[in-house]
Hints:
Blueprint: H1 23-35, H2 75-141, H3 154-168, H4 170-175, E1 181-183, E2 193-195, H5 199-217
Antiparallel strand pairs: 1-2
Amino acid sequence: MSTSPQAGPSAASPIRKRHHLDPHEQQARALEKLLAHPERQVHIPAPPREKSIRPPREIQKNVVGSSAGAGSGEFHVYKHARRREYERIKLMEDGANKIMQAEEFARQHAAKVMQDEAKTDKNRAKREKKKLAALKARAAAKGQNPDKVKLHDGPGRGDGARAGRRDSNDGDDDDGEASKRRRIHNEETGGILFRKKGDDDDEEEEGDGESSRGEEGEPRDA
């Protein structure tokens, strides 16, 4: 009984190339081909032009009616004229539909924007109401009249506080007694500490000088 020789590893069937590539592989192959020669200019095709047909003639010398039979010599003339007229009407209808779609999109976009703005205003009113309640509670805890508390915007609140600080301390500035740190207690700020630029550095320098003088004046133990 004879046995046929078995095929060795060298006689393995070659790997067949894939001819049906999925979109991901097609895009990867296109990118590899594009990046293989980066010095070449990339041809970008122009956008498609809108379809248009020849405008109708101003003067039509021979008007062919639909009474021309299929066997007459003028039937093909009427047929082409009718086809061009149908194409022209279709283009007009497509243009009108595009205009209607654009107007509908603009209307829906405006309605969506108004809805978002209304929702934003509602949320802002809730936040301001919550902040006002917190300020009134803080004023009542300090023994102040909560009915006089008003809610201002962040920048306006800071500007008003700085303006009030300047107005309340004009006399001190004229006398030359400018303090380094000022604490403002009013209804708007709610006890916020305002500090001038460079105040911390000046205080630290003064504190270091006083501490060094105190150390020099203290008697040392023998």
